[in-house]
Amino acid sequence: EATFGWTAGEAIGRPMAELIIPPALRAHHAQGMETFLATGAVPIINKRMEVSARHKKGHDIVVEMIIGKMTLAGEHYFHAFLHDISVRKEAQRQLEEKQQLLDAVLDAIDVGVVACSGTGALTLFNRAARELHGLDAELMESTEWAEHYSLYAGDGKTLLELDQVPLFRALSGDTVHNVEMVIAPKGKPPRFLHASGRRLVGNKGESLGAVVAMNDVTDLKDSEKRLVINDQRLRAVTENVPAMIGHVDQNETLLFLNSAAASLVFQGENKDLIGRSLADAYGDLRYTQMKPYVDRALAGEKVIFERDIFIKGEQRHYHTTYVPDVDALGVSSGFYAMAMDITERKSSELLQAESEERLRTVTDNLPVLIAYIDHNEIYRFCNATYEQWFGVSPTMMIGKSVEQVLGKDIYELGKEQLKRNLMGERVQFETTSMINNQLRTVEIVGIPDIKEGQVKGIYVMTTDITDAKNHEKQLQLLARSDALTGLPNRRSYEEKLQEAALRAARSGKLLTLMFLDLDHFKQINDTLGHAGGDEVLREFATRLRLCVRATDTVCRLAGDEFTIILEAITDSQEAKLIAEKVLLSIQQPFLVQGAIQAVSTSIGITCMSADNIDLAKLAKQADQALYQAKKAGRNQFHMIARP
Question: Strands 601-608 and 637-642, how do they pair?
Answer without folding.
Answer: parallel
